[in-house]
Design a protein that fits this description.
Layout: E1 6-9, H1 10-23, H2 28-41, H3 48-55, H4 60-69, H5 74-85, H6 95-98, E2 99-102, E3 112-114, H7 115-133, H8 137-146, H9 151-158, H10 163-168, E4 183-184, E5 189-190, E6 197-198, E7 203-205, E8 212-213, H11 214-227, H12 245-252, H13 254-272, E9 275-277, E10 285-288, E11 297-299, E12 305-307, H14 320-330, H15 339-343, E13 344-346, E14 353-355, E15 362-364, E16 371-373, H16 406-429, H17 431-444, H18 449-479, H19 485-509, H20 516-539
Antiparallel strand pairs: 1-2, 3-10, 4-7, 5-6, 7-8, 9-10, 11-12, 13-14, 15-16
Helix pairs in contact: 1-5, 4-9, 7-8, 12-13, 16-18, 17-18, 18-19, 18-20, 19-20
């Protein structure tokens, strides 16, 4: 988020300020009046904190921390000043004062925020810079852009050397407290772009004084917005004076201005690296660092899963590097499967070809009713507890009779990787039907429609989440050292996750045999096993 969580040792800060005061021979001129006022009135004069801040302006690090204290309530500020005025031996610090957490007004972590919240935070940042530097909000906006929306960076660098930031936006100290933006030209003249002559009211310029006609400004702005530029500058070659959103609104109207503000927001998001847009194009949420879970997994409330590190769709538990390697080697011709192989299997009992059209691996032959596993073709009754082994490749023969080559391993894991992808696709295609059947079952169990819908949505969301993790669990397993302790532990977690997900999918596809309690237990079990899988994967990464 824009408002970083700062931790500071108040005691150390007071000691640093006391040391500066003690070494300054002229400090009594301003310290004594404040101390005398406190001794007489038992309260701190209103100007005291600002006086200390002004005296510390040459020390950018202390000044930065003082600016953070300034955000706190007045009682804390007064106590802080008192601790500075008291001799060190008289100062008493409590545990609650020794460390402060400074953050935005929202104390609890926010996994998801909206664009409106980010804009509000942006406005609040601008206000803080205005208060700190006593400048206009237009100049404060440009300074924050220059320092990548970091108050800390601005406080530490601008006071010591303001020149680079001012030059970047064509600003001077003399105009910092004035509103910026378009102004009419002082004189009639020629627009150097279109070479037509206009009266002064039809020629506009920024603080640089370079005047152009309204139509040329309009064409320039619209072209830059079409390019997606987050910064539109004066048309004079080499001029760095920059337009504000209000300038674009004035010339081009709401539609173009809103588009420009969207580019500004995207640019801010890319700069601060603490907020990312949800990958779902229909979702307008912004994910924050607080949303990042195990294996760089970030989950939006709309159900979209993203890898925080690379910004692509989540591939947890596989790392970004493992994902790239997997996609490269799995595209080789030897790993290409035909539709028949992917979507049909021979019944182990009657040899009829069975087409898979659901998301569950529990298959029942339509001819002989034999129940078997889609993945390994084994009898389904054996797929429970410690017998659920079809997710593992067959071990190598110690006598050398069945040595598993790397291609064999790749084929094994690729088959299961594709199987989960196909299961996920099948579930999406049948989602509406499955959802309706679960809702119908819950309503039969006397649950209101809205409540039934919410619970059914939650069940399918859990399945989608777990399936996405299991899709990439096999590429990660492929890159683990075979027979290593890390592989053994991970493989155990993977087996358990497979089992409990199949149980939940079966309940979802057969709601007539299910109860709300059975769903809740199954969902919780899936979530716990998926978390265990990710924790093991992250631990060994």
């Amino acid at each position: 988020m824009i408002f970083h969580i700062f931790r500071m040792n108040v005691e150390k800060l007071v000691e640093e300020i006391r040391e500066i005061i003690d070494n300054d021979l002229s400090s009594n001129e301003w310290v004594d009046p404040i101390s005398d006022y406190y001794e007489k009135h038992l309260t701190i004069p209103s100007y005291a904190f600002n006086e200390i801040t002004n005296r510390m302006r040459t020390n950018s690090k202390i000044l930065s921390r003082l600016m953070e204290i300034k955000k706190l309530d007045q009682n804390f500020i007064n106590n802080f000043v008192i601790k500075i005025l008291k001799p060190p031996e008289e100062t008493v610090f409590t545990d609650s004062d020794s460390e402060i957490i400074l953050q935005d007004d929202t104390a609890s972590p926010q996994n998801i925020i909206t664009s409106e919240v980010l804009k509000a935070q942006q406005t609040q940042l601008v206000g803080q810079v205005v208060s700190f530097l006593s400048i206009h909000e237009d100049a404060a906006f440009f300074l924050l852009q220059y320092y990548k929306w970091s108050l800390d960076r601005l406080y530490q660098n601008y006071v010591d050397n303001p020149r680079p930031a001012l030059l970047e936006y064509g600003l001077t100290k003399e105009i910092l407290n004035q509103p910026l933006g378009f102004k009419p030209s002082k004189n009639d003249g020629e627009c150097v772009i279109c070479a037509d002559t206009f009266d002064a009211s039809q020629l506009l310029c920024l603080q640089c004084g370079h005047s152009f006609c309204i139509n040329c400004w309009k064409d320039h702005i619209e072209y830059q917005v079409q390019l997606g530029s987050p910064r539109i500058t004066c048309m004079e070659q080499g001029c760095k004076c920059t337009l504000l959103g209000k300038d674009i609104m004035q010339i081009c109207g709401d539609k173009v201005a809103n588009g420009y503000h969207g580019f500004l927001l995207d640019n801010q998001i890319s700069i601060i690296n603490q907020v990312k847009r949800c990958l779902n194009p229909k979702c307008h949420n912004l994910l924050t660092l607080d949303s990042v879970w195990l294996c760089n997994l970030s989950r939006c409330e709309c159900g979209s899963l993203m890898c925080w590190k690379c910004g692509d769709e989540s591939h947890a538990p596989a790392t970004c590097n493992e994902k790239s390697k997997w996609l490269e080697i799995s595209e080789e011709e030897v790993m290409q499967n035909q539709w028949l192989t992917q979507n049909t299997k021979i019944c182990p009992k009657c040899k009829a070809r069975i087409e898979k059209n659901g998301g569950c691996n529990h298959m029942t032959c339509s001819r002989c009713s034999y129940e078997f596993c889609w993945v390994c073709s084994g009898e389904w009754s054996q797929h429970g507890g410690s017998f659920y082994e079809c997710h593992r490749p067959k071990p190598a023969d110690p006598n050398g009779g069945n040595v598993i080559t790397d291609l064999d391993r790749m084929s094994h894991y690729h088959t299961r990787y594709n199987n989960h992808k196909q299961n996920s696709t099948n579930m999406k295609e049948q989602r509406s039907l499955i959802l309706a059947n679960i809702i119908k079952r819950f309503e039969f169990l006397n649950h209101q429609h809205d409540e039934a819908t919410k619970k059914a949505e939650s069940i399918l969301s859990t399945i989608h989440f777990a399936r996405t993790i299991l899709i990439w669990s096999y590429p990660h397993a492929y890159f683990l050292p075979p027979n290593s302790p890390s592989f053994t532990l991970y493989d155990h977690c993977l087996k358990n996750a497979e089992v409990v997900l199949e149980d939940l999918v079966y309940l979802a596809e057969n709601p007539a045999k299910s109860t709300l309690n059975s769903y809740e237990i199954a969902c919780k079990t899936v979530e716990m096993n998926i978390e265990s899988l990710l924790r093991h994967a992250e631990y060994y990464q």
